[in-house]
TrEMBL record:
Name of protein: Respiratory supercomplex factor 1, mitochondrial
UniProt superkingdom: Eukaryota
Compositional bias per record (Polar residues), positions renumbered to this chain: 130-139
Keywords annotated in UniProt: Coiled coil, Membrane, Mitochondrion, Transmembrane, Transmembrane helix
Source organism of this protein record: Grifola frondosa (Maitake)
Amino acid sequence: MNIPGSGSSTNMGMVSTETYQEKFQRKFKENPFVPLGALGTAIALTIASNQMRKRNSKSMNNWLRMRVIMQGATIAAVVGGSIYYGQTKQQKEAREAEEQERYLENVARDRAAFQERLKDAEEVHRLETMGSNGQSQSKWFPWGGASENSSDAPPEVLPPVFASPAVTEVQEPAPAQSSGKRGIWGWFGRGSSKNS
């Protein structure tokens, strides 16, 4: 698992880099005793070297002993912090894995429930569209719609809505009274007549 801002995480193929200040802040938040111990060691060493310059050997030895104690405390903080944060990191990863597993189980359960509801809805729809004789009925088309039981062939008999009206007698249009001129040119006086 990558820690955000660690410099080793990848985001869409890009490696993120962090500055020294950001890295120091992150490390200080993770284990504040290590930088404090290093600072104490540096201060004890600086005071010991100052006492050596003044030729105060007793005080210099005390500060050198203090430096050794601070350095030991810093090393203990490094080891203890590594063990503690290593365990918490493992525990965190275990919790995240459990959460992920629960999430996937919930998703699978929800998906199975949805599939069941979908099957039930399809069955109800199929039963609602079935006619009394097993043929598919549709509220849009009186002769039925396409279903699993019906073929794609058009119905043999069209319903009365779409059937053509019964033709009892064909009447021919009455002939127009001829003025002797035909066509549109007759209107302009250029048409030819039958008699001429």
